[in-house]
Amino acid sequence: MHALRHVILSPSGVEFAVALKLISSTPSTLVNVVTAKSNLLRVYGIREQPSPTSDHVESERDKRARVRKGTEAVEGEVEMDQSGEGWVNVGAVKSNANQETATTLRFHLLREHTLHGTVTGVDKVRTMASSDDKLDRLLISFKDAKIALLEWSDAIYDLVTVSIHTYERSPQMAVLDSHLFRAELRADSLSRCAALSLPKDSIAILPFYQTQAELDVMEQDQSLAREVPYSPSFVLDLVADVDSNLRNVIDFVFLPGYHNPTIAVLCQSEKTWAGRLKEYRDTGRLYIFTLDLLNHTYPIITAVDNLPYDCLSLLPCAQSIGGVVILTANSLIYVDQAARRVSLPVNAWSARVGDIPSLPLDKDLDLILEGSRLVFADEKTFFVIRKDGMIHSIEIISDGRTVSRLVLSPALAQTTIPTVTRQLGWGMLFVGSTVGPSVLLRAVRVEEEVVEGEAEDTSTALTAVVDTKNAMDIDDFDDDDLYGESKPVTKTAANGATPGAYPLRTRSVIHISLCDSLPAYGPIADMTFSLSKLGERYVPELVVATGGGHLGGFTLFQRDLPLRTKRKLHVLGGARGIWSIPVRQSHRVNGTSYEKTSGGLYAGENDTIVISTDANPSPGVSRIATRAAKTDLTIPTRIPGTTVSAGPFFQRTAILHVMTNAIRVLEPDGTERQIIKDMDGNMPRARIKACSICDPFVLILREDETIGLFIGETERGKIRRKDMSPMGEKSSRYLAGCFYTDTSNAFEMATTDGTVAASSNADNNITSTLQAAVTTGHNSQWLVLIRPQGVMEIWSLPKLTLVFSSVAIGTLEPVLSDSFDPPAPSPPQDPPRKLHDLDIEQILIAPLGESAPTPHLFVFMRCGHLAVYEVHSIPLSTSPSGGRSVSLQIVFTKVLTRTFELSKQEDAEKTVLAEQKRISRTFVPFVTSPTTSLNVNASHTLTGVFFTGDKPSWIIRTDKGGLKLFPSGHAVVHAFTACSLWESKAEFLVYSDEGPTLLEWIPDVELDTSLPKRSLPRSRPYSNIVFEPSASLIVAASTLPARFASYDEDNNMLWEPDGTGVSFPQCDCSTLELIFPDSWITMDGYEFAPNEYVNALECVTLETLSTESGNRDFIAVGTSIDRGEDLAVKGATYIFEVVEVVPDPSFNTQRWYKLKLRVRDDSKGPVTALCGINGYLVSSMGQKIFVRAFDLDERLVGVAFLDVGVYVTSLRVLKNLLLIGDAVKSVWLVAFQEDPYKLVILAKDIRRTYATNVDFFFTNGELSIVLNDEEGVLRMLTYDPSDPDSRGGQHLMCFTEFHCHKECRASRTIARRTKEDNEIPQAKLIAGFTDGSLSALTPVDEGAFKRLHLLQGQLLRNVQHVAGLNPKAYRIVRNDTVSKPMSRGVLDGQLLETFEELGIQGQQEMTRQIGTERIAVLRDWSLHVGPW
Fold first, then answer.
1. What count of other Cβ atoms lies within 10 Å of the Cβ of residue 1035?
2. For the whole model, what pTM was predicted?
3. For a Cys staple, 1329 with which of 377, 896, 901, 1302, CB 3.0–4.6 Å?
4. Contact 248, 181 (CB under 8 A)
5. Which conformational region is residue 566 in: left (phi greater than 0), alpha (psi within -120 to 50 degrees), or beta?
6. Residues 6 or more apart from 1409 whose CB is under 8 A from it?
7. How do residues 1189-1235 score in pLDDT, each as one tens digit?
8. Is residue 1393 helix, strand or coil?
């Protein structure tokens, strides 16, 4: 049995981050940030852009616009009234107003890569080549002890690999527990070397050349050093080469300000723990030593011992202070170069677990620092961000370079749960999180004036406050919870007194504000499928329990972009096209009609008319509709004939209407102003099949592949033909074409001497100054054409100068650059050219994006290939040739590729019936402002493209999620347009298989992941979730922190806090919640004991007397009751029933449900897994499995049991077969027999494996068992008694091992139905992982598997993989019991998806070597990669 494993969702969150100057061609980018999580690498740019105007400011502008001139308030009048002083300093008010900053910092995703390796660190270095381009290089370390050096290439606008350094075969990596070790990466601040930690207390050192002197010493050629910027690396054994006590390394960092690279290593000479402190305490040590890279000597500068045993990490201080800050669980310790220590305790445990001298403890202070992260805001102030997100500032008080004490402030604000913190420069701090969103903070030190008379408490003086002008409200907390006691009182420094009643002093304070955040949902704890109602139809929705701590909640995923129907518009029609157009009445100036535009494309304008067209009845009909009442349409004008396209013209004062044989100019009311018949003399031309309208130009494409170009004359209000002689012969043929108006200034022309040519709209040949005044700003316009031989040409307007040509688009190459060719000749007309599968049917250049849309090129081929290219401005590397005087300084890089399987239509059919059946596949650009449920007025704008046809899709790009393609969920979409006729920027008119409808996106949909999602923050995490089908409700088990107290058998408390700064420990407790999935309100709940938590939650079908069928769905819960170290853990099994009750009138719902407890059955051990089988309940209790009957709806009666392994992790049922997953004994296959009751062991897996999840996997009469273990290894096992190695079927045979490198927490089996429509569907396995990723395991038939497996081998050898990693080695599982890896049975979807990204020539070369067809392989791939 074969399967394909592919990723549905990439990992979520940020585990590693580094700030660096990576890209040179983006002047608006302050700094680049590279983030990594698991095997996902993302490159962001932080851009400074104008702040969005708030709704309050907009309302104030509207108020001022309505105030009569001369009666508005003077500047400062409001301030005068508020202060009541009776006077106002207008100059001061003006100066203060001018100081307001109108920009903000935002993340923009530039590139992302899924790597064939697990990232364990990222850092930056500068090589000798950096002296030329002033750019940093990127270092990435991987789990298998590799370091990759990458740099940015402007030619392909992506990262390229410089080198890879591997240490996986070093003796240190040969230890048995090396898979438990995580290699950490550090780089010297002056880029002299990088270090990678290895097992057995070793560090791999990679030196870099920095100066010519180093090359002279090493006797290296300078040109060679630019290609090979590093010297040979070596492994440093800390115990043998530095100090014999330097073992059990906890953390290490490079220290700045030293002549040679200097490392501080935090270690533990003797391992100990809380129960061993009487024998060993204060076992921590700190060593600071220098690396002499030439002589390989490592003198120790400072050695500090007797540090607390619970040291966690190091933070290097600035060069002006020196030393390091050590984070421990109970204190913060500063250590300088002279080994002086200053310890700041944060609770009373610090004095109990260690003997280090400390500063006095604040009596009210009781903090926990486990999970905290440290980051410097400036040289003497750093922030401690605790694991609950609370931010504390610590000020280092020093006298010169001698530090005297550390001052801790109260909590300033609450932010995300930190995993990594980085200082980015420009006062920016980045806090990355693996369990929730990552945030960008700004911390700026300012001098504030303090009035002497104000109350001031110097004992609680703060060094930082929250900037309330840009409050940190990402967690939606109340202000009291968010800011704590952040009083604006800080240490004051008297810089002189101001004359007056109250002398003024200044204080230095750090203002913290939230700039931006990266959305993430964190690890997946559990998931289930539910039904989501979209209008009148139900669609499957994946409900996932995600996040942790106060960032916990639910995340809802759907396969298609969720839409809801607002109303049907059958009167409109539109099976052949719909266009919603904004048209205004024209103004007359000196006899000339024009409408002056403001802002961007249709900015602030609502649509006024809708044009629709149908092919039936023949020869077609077109309608012009306007808004009649609140929701109705009226159709005042009907025109016989089919409309090809329509659009606003003459600055939105007229309508340009293109039909199959004529071009018409219509007045705003639909009356005809001008008509031009498409004739060649007296002979009719071929029918017009497509056109592009871009005021003042019109392009038509006919069925015989000829084109026509028209231009509008603003003074006359009419159009005329434009001379096309610069483009070649009159009989030139073209497959597709479009206009593009450049609003982003990405299209810049350069002449042969390298100077930038003038914008085409600055042309002196424009008709008149009036037309120049009313045209849209200074945006240049361009014409894009595709010739039959697969050449793309870009012509400037209005002069028609060829500025770009490329033949690479015909094969969809990854990069399209200018070939500097002259205009391509047309092929001969005799014989007529036949259509080819690789002909380009549609082409469009349109902006895509959120806050700053950028141009993208959209290409669709006749065979079903869709490609999207991003446009990048680059300086020309070669001078134009071939007689061209100018060229565009741009390059197109491919960012998305899809292959659709299309329904073929006979080209010879020209009948009326064939015309009506024809499916139009076109790109339609749109601009929308989706609504949000929290704040209706606060909306953002998205610029996207919709692809119509039988594979309708939304193509959308967000700032932080990149480019995504989402299916629309329709079987076919014939026509599409964005519509604001009803004064809403979030509506769309769509003619689909359901007819003409007005649609909108559901509120709060987020499009930054591969599946559309909605986030439901609940301020608490959930461990289990299940769907109750009878009432369509969600039942979930939430996890809350609770104080834990230990009792003896007589219920006497064994310990309680015995002093200040000491508190009870925390443990998890669970509650059960019954949730209504439409509004996500909690209907009912059940609270367990404070020391009881839920292990298993299932919806099971049990036999009952309360229904006619004899069966009913119940909620079964298995729990553990923790009683401390000295007493054995117990458990319980609960059976709940969801019952309907009378609804509460205060809630707006017609039905209400509650949880009714039927049974609570105590057990002697924890109940860790549950399931139902044939109307019975199967539950685990310790080392036993019980099958129980639900007797009289009030008790559980055991009918069978079985002694199993050590700790049951999962139970799965298929008919009467039972799979038992164990933490030690892997998986057992058991059969349940009812007469007599018996559990029969069929087979076992004999290897010792921690099975986190086990599942049945079947297709076409074949059955396998899928097992996931804690190391992330996926194994497929089979029950085959005919195999002699199975000993008559007693052993389960493992035939495939596939390494996923991440632990699977939850899995669900769904049905997969193929076109064969078998009676029993195939099984498809959806798995959720701890890094937030989601994967699917899909059965593959034998023929497709052979083709894809051979292709996988070709891709391994012939494709350059990011960072030089080996995909095959990434998936191999170490197994000493077999001679070669057992990785054949599962295909790697991550590797196979690179085939679709190749150009067509590359694809043909790959498939030619394996003897198969390219189309067949693409069809195999597209049939197996759907999410569900």
1. 26
2. 0.90
3. 1302
4. no
5. alpha
6. 1354
7. 998 888 999 999 999 989 999 999 999 999 999 999 999 999 999 88
8. helix
